[in-house]
Amino acid sequence: MMQENADILKPLNPADAFTLAMDDEIRREGMPGSLCGFALVLNTAPDIGLLKARIQEFITKFPLATASLQQHGRRFYWCARNKQRAIFLQHACPPTDSEQAFHQTKLQEILNRQEPRESVSPLEFHLLDGTHRQVFLLRWIHPFCDARGADLILKYLCTDDTSQRHLFNTAEITPLVNQQLAKFSFWQKIRLFFKAKQHIENIDKLQSILPLENCRKAPEKLSYISKRLNTIQTQRIAANVRRHVGLTGTSLYYLGCMMRALQKLQPQQLGDAYCVPYAFNLRKSKALSPVLGNHVGAMFAQAPRELVQNRERLFKHLKQQNIKSIREQLDYAFLPLMWAGSWLSLEKYGKTLRQSYSSGSERSSFWFSDIGQPDLSGHTFMGAEIIDLIHLCQISSPPGLALLSCQFQGRLTLSYNFIEPLLNADWIEELHTLMVQELLAE
Amino acid sequence: MKQTLRKFIFEELIFVTDPAQYNDDENLLEAGLDSMGIMRLIMFIEEQFNIILPDNEIEPDNVQSINALTQWILKHQ
């Protein structure tokens, strides 16, 4: 509950409530909540003095970055903290440790740190030292911002021109869900609401295939394996994307390949179809404002098992499903559902988001996010060259598996995030081998 | 059922000083129930009474009063 006299900085918007419900679901499983991260692997140490000054400037300009998330009645608010805490932390690699192992262990440790919702910092910056490589981690929590917001924060830190940095702001605007909804009339809103409900009911007619069907172990920790494909592979994949789904459907190609890789790895798994939530963004592309807050909702891509077994038919199906969603304005249809959901208790909203209406089983076969090409112009960070990028996120179990993709310096990066001991590194390695085969298949 | 509906509507969706002055035939749309309120009401009804309300039946005749809502719910129980 909210502390007395706490200064409310900002209420959560309906899209924030959507990600907060998932944070709550993860916490209910004994895990740390919806922590996420972008880790930049650097070839040398960044300019620490400049980095500290830029971070300080950022938190002065955006006090929400050090706020505390608190419940007041049934709603949640970002509130000012009584006592500030450091949000830039440096970690030295012990001389006896392997740098790479130290970096991996430390990243996992940070993403697995348990803290109550009210005390966890919405944003933290970590620098993991090393002689050969350094890692800069931007760790955020949903619902503070989404991946696009995190990308903008990195862009802010990297922008040397003061006047350009002034363009970043969090102008007080009506939440975008409400803005979009205001465009529809009384009965149009209701029709949209039912359209989304009907879409979910149709999805729920098929039971989702999960990667963890037979596992009864409790989730213990988030782990990750990040794989970077070379430029030739990435170009071949881009050609496949154009051939199968068109460039606007790049995410669908990764999604379809992942469905096929899972099907090859676990052909006997129970269920009727792979069903994957993917983010749609309510914000104008490349807008600098607002930096903070969520403006995403989830759509679903679903493919029955028999379609997954046929590459041509699968991609055609995913593309047609996506076109139909846009033509029928299903992205708009989810807005009233998100708005209404934001009034439910977190527990009820979480169940509504995750569980099939008909069977009560988990709806998501895996989580997926494609951030495209991160906006890190120059491929440098505070004087250091960025040589790799790792994308991290906590996940509910089931599915206990997330595929996060991006393209950086012309190379496709796949970050597999998974919950141990439900899934393990050997299983992920097998999955990745199959995934690469699928991505590169003619 | 009517009491459950009345409690939710007047505590969550329509704010009036004296709910008692609104009888079960009172027009809820005129009293201030808007489209977002109807969505929340439908979610509440479906969960509370464990029913699915068909979208093709969303029309003023079914949602305009507590009595109309009650008839609509009973039809699907």
Helix content of chain A: 25-40%
CATH superfamily grouping of chain B: ACP-like
Please state the CA-atom Rg of chain B, rounded to the nearest Å.
11 Å
The end-to-end span of chain B amounts to 12 Å
Please explain how this structure is put together:
The complex is a heterodimer of chains A (442) and B (77). Chain A is an alpha+beta fold. Chain A has helices spanning 14-28, 48-61, 99-111, 147-158, 162-165, 176-181, 186-203, 231-244, 250-265, 305-308, 311-327, 330-341, 346-354, 425-440, and strands at 8-11, 35-42, 68-72, 75-79, 88-91, 123-128, 134-141, 221-228, 273-281, 296-304, 367-370, 380-381, 384-393, 401-408, 411-420. Chain A is 38% helix and 23% strand. In chain A, strand 12 (380-381) and strand 13 (384-393) form a beta hairpin. In chain A, helix 1 crosses helix 12 (330-341) and helix 7 packs across helix 12. In chain A, 43% of the residues are buried. Chain B is mainly α. Chain B has a single domain (2-75), classed as Orthogonal Bundle (Non-ribosomal Peptide Synthetase Peptidyl Carrier Protein, Chain A), CATH 1.10.1200.10. Chain B has helices spanning 2-13, 28-31, 35-49, 60-63, 66-75. Chain B is globular. The A-B interface holds A 181, 186-187, 189-191, 193-195, 197-198, 201, 336, 339-341, 343-344, 348 and B 12, 34-36, 38-40, 42-43, 47, 52, 55, 58.
In short:
Chain A contains 14 helices and 15 strands. With 442 residues, chain A is α+β, with helices and mostly antiparallel strands. The A-B interface holds A 181, 186-187, 189-191, 193-195, 197-198, 201, 336, 339-341, 343-344, 348 and B 12, 34-36, 38-40, 42-43, 47, 52, 55, 58.
